Amino acid sequence: MPLRRIAVLATAACTMTIAACGSGEQPESQPQAPSAPATVVGIRTAPTGDYLVDASGRTLYLFTKDEPGTSQCVDQCVAQWPPLTGAPQAGPGVDAAKLGTLNRPDGGGQQITFSGKPLYYFAQDKAAGDIKGQDKMHVWYLVSPAGEAIKTAAPTG
Predict the structure, then answer these.
(1) Which single residue of 22, 39, 104, 146 has CA 20 to 30 Å from 91?
(2) What whole-number distance in Å separates Cα of residue 73 and Cα of residue 78?
(3) Do residues 121 and 60 lie in contact, with contact meaning Cβ atoms separated by under 8 Å?
(4) Is the CB of residue 135 less than 8 Å from the CB of residue 151?
(5) What's the CA gap between 154 and 14, in Å, rounded?
(6) Do residues 114 and 68 make contact, with C-beta atoms less than 8 angstroms apart?
(7) Residue-wise pLDDT tens for the chain (157 aa)?
(8) CB 60 within 8 A of CB 41
(9) Contact 41, 91 (CB under 8 A)
(10) What is the distance between the alpha carbons of residues 151 and 139, in angstroms, rounded to a whole number?
(11) Residue 95 gets which letter from DSSP?
């Protein structure tokens, strides 16, 4: 009775499949895309005025030729003025509501903004507290905690 043998084998195979499914093992979850690391924007307190910095104390700048939500610094400009990228996080004293991001026009990912203005580093600033980019070409300035360009003398401290 080969037909009966096939039926028994089929039943056994179904039983084993059902048992395996009900073994209490959870299906593997789909891998999550890694989230961008948080980039903290903080405030450096100086005797002549406070300004925005990253978590390691590196100075942040704004470019007065940028329009809110748009970066005009592309191509060779980025070599001297690297954009601040990542997922923005407010440090102590920073208004988190003023932090945001924009899509870089050159495909460079998400650039962090403050009060709608893109934030940048200056390549010649090597250490925390360096402000060599202040008033560079009369278009690059430190950023106040209010989100405005600091056009007065460079803060020291």
Answers:
(1) 104
(2) 6
(3) yes
(4) yes
(5) 77
(6) no
(7) 454 444 434 444 444 444 444 444 444 445 454 566 789 999 999 876 899 999 999 999 999 999 989 999 999 999 999 999 999 999 999 999 999 999 999 988 999 999 999 999 999 999 999 999 999 999 999 999 999 999 987 666 5
(8) yes
(9) yes
(10) 9
(11) -
Residue position matching structure tokens 């430190």: 142
How far does CA 27 lie from the centroid of its chain? 32
Query: Residue length, the chain?
Result: 157
Token output for 5: 């043998």
Distance of alpha carbon 57 from alpha carbon 55, whole angstroms: 6
What is the pTM for the complete model shown?
0.76
Q: How far apart are CA 145 and CA 95, in angstroms?
A: 8
